[in-house]
Design a protein that fits this description.
The structure is a single chain. The chain has 3 domains: about 210 residues, no CATH class; about 80 residues, Signal transduction histidine kinase, dimerisation/phosphotransfer (DHp) domain (Helix Hairpins), CATH 1.10.287.130; about 190 residues, Histidine kinase-like ATPase, C-terminal domain (Heat Shock Protein 90). It is about 55% helix and about 15% strand. The protein has 13 helices and 12 strands. Strand 4 and strand 5 form a beta hairpin.
């Protein structure tokens, strides 16, 4: 392996995010902060005046030193003992437990016995027993004074040397402990995290080895409860994907099946038209050819409408007059209704301005009217009712035709589904699927109930009238179980009574 490849691998490792590295780095940073806090605490507790460890130690040393010197009666002996103790303490150097302190000794009469400080004796001689801070020549000193019998002793500690003492004596020991403890802390955590992620890695490997068509549930022995939500969510996702793919396959299969008939008719009638010898045969073949083309065109348009409904953004809205759109849809179907002898009526306010997706609303209205006219009774009635309140738009399309049997209502909004009463009528069974998809795209709901005077069918649609209602309304599912939506139908009945 070349050096360039090694550098590239290390670069990818450094830039790639890793949970293990994040945990270890967090542990190192946390431990470092704790040790910094510990050093700061030691620093403050050692250097604190009067209550600090160095001040307490200095007072103890000074008291013992003064007692030893006071026990001696000869001045020369005092000088020798003081010099010996000072040299012993100085010989320990920076490796000792305390800084290099300086001592000054004198008799009570003021006669100097031993002087080892840079501070002049007159400067400190006037200090009473205890601890003091003295400033001399730009330097700060801690001076401890002890009067023991006939002996006066001063211990002088330069404050700058205290900080150096901590940096050179205490800090190396703490760093040594830190670098010994750090691997002992990081290594077990690294092993624990790596071991904890092992089931997740096995799950990743299992998913990577699956074929594209394998959407079966994951069978992973989850003795760790933390993995159960992940496996459950993945299985739910796989089920939804499998169901979605199944619907798409069924849709393609049904669409191909439905298109096969008009295409076969087109092919057959094209041959008949080409070989027809009489005008009557050509006219009949032309009529059948036009009907087949119309059926194929209608089916293709419905499939395109259904595809556009899937995943449509509910935030696409415009401020429109709903009644204008509704009247245009009714006008488009009026000639068709007249040919079938159907009384088509529209009931609603003169104008109704709302923020809604115009194209989806138009598709819903067109397919509801087409369904009522296609499968309703000849010489019957079809009523389109529009109303609204503060938050919702209500649409009801009712007829007095043969209706839909109760056991068929659960599947009425599925693709390519038609009831027994629709057998013999043209159509592929996509209209109500488009209505359902459009209502869902707008975050509303649609239900199936009774039609005019308790006969036929009534399709009742409720749509959010303002953008903030879409999120709440989208949580409600389509009601196709044969139960009547009292709110929707009450709006339709109220408006019918007022007209």
């Amino acid at each position: 392996m070349s050096l360039k490849a090694v550098k590239l691998g290390l670069g990818e490792f450094a830039t790639q995010r890793s949970l293990i590295r994040r945990v270890c780095v967090t542990l190192v940073l946390t431990t470092s902060m704790l040790f910094c806090g510990l050093f700061f605490y030691i620093y403050q507790s050692v250097l604190a005046r009067d209550s600090g460890e160095l001040d307490r130690t200095a007072r103890v040393v000074l008291d013992q030193f003064a007692r030893q010197l006071n026990a001696l009666n000869d001045v020369e002996q005092m000088r020798l003992v003081a010099k010996s103790i000072t040299e012993l303490q100085r010989g320990q150097g920076r490796s000792g437990p305390v800084p290099s302190w300086k001592f000054t000794v004198s008799l009570a009469t003021g006669e100097p016995v031993f002087i080892d400080t840079t501070l002049p004796l007159p400067t400190i001689a006037s200090l009473p027993p205890g601890s003091h801070t003295v400033l001399d020549d730009g330097n700060s000193f801690r001076v401890f004074v002890q009067h023991e019998g006939n002996v006066h002793v001063w211990l002088v500690d330069k404050l700058q040397e205290r900080s150096s003492f901590l940096a050179e004596f205490v800090l190396p020991k703490l760093l040594g402990v830190f670098f010994v403890m750090l691997p002992c802390l990081v290594l077990p955590v690294w092993l624990a995290v790596r071991s904890g992620l092992a089931p997740l890695n096995r799950l990743s490997t299992q998913m990577a080895l699956r074929s594209e068509s394998d959407l079966s549930p994951i069978e992973l022995p989850t003795k760790y409860k933390e993995l159960s939500p992940l496996v459950t969510s993945l299985n739910q996702l796989l089920r939804r994907v499998d169901k979605s793919i199944g619907r798409e396959k069924s849709f393609v299969h049904d669409a191909a099946h439905e298109l096969r008939t008009p295409l076969a008719v087109i092919l057959a009638q094209a041959h008949v038209l080409a070989d027809a010898e009489t005008h009557e045969h050509r006219t009949e073949a032309k009529t059948r050819l036009e009907n087949a083309v119309s059926r194929a065109s209608h089916l293709t348009r419905q499939m395109l409408d259904l595809a556009r409904m899937d995943g449509r953004d509910p935030s696409i809205r415009s401020h429109i007059d709903v009644m204008l759109i509704t009247r245009n849809c009714v006008a488009d179907q009026f000639n068709r209704a007249s040919e079938k002898g159907v009384e088509l009526t529209l009931e609603g306010p003169e104008t109704l301005w709302l923020s809604i997706d115009e194209h989806v609303l138009q598709s819903i209205l067109e397919n509801l009217l087409d369904n009522a006219l296609r499968y309703g009774a000849s010489n019957g009635k079809v009523t389109l009712t529009v109303s609204s309140d503060a938050v919702s738009l209500y649409i009801a399309v009712c007829d007095n035709g043969p209706g839909i049997a109760p056991h068929e209502r659960a599947e009425v909004f599925e693709r390519f589904r038609r009831g027994q009463a629709a057998i013999g009528a043209s159509g592929a069974g996509l209209g109500l699927s488009i209505v359902s998809a459009g209502v869902n795209a707008l975050g509303g709901r649609v239900s199936l109930g009774e039609g005019i005077d308790g006969k036929g069918c009534g399709f009742y649609v409720q749509l959010p009238a303002s953008p903030h209602d879409v999120a709440d309304a989208s949580r409600r599912s389509v009601a196709a179980d044969g139960t009547q939506d009292e709110t929707l139908m009450s709006h339709a009945r109220t408006l019918q009574r007022t007209n």
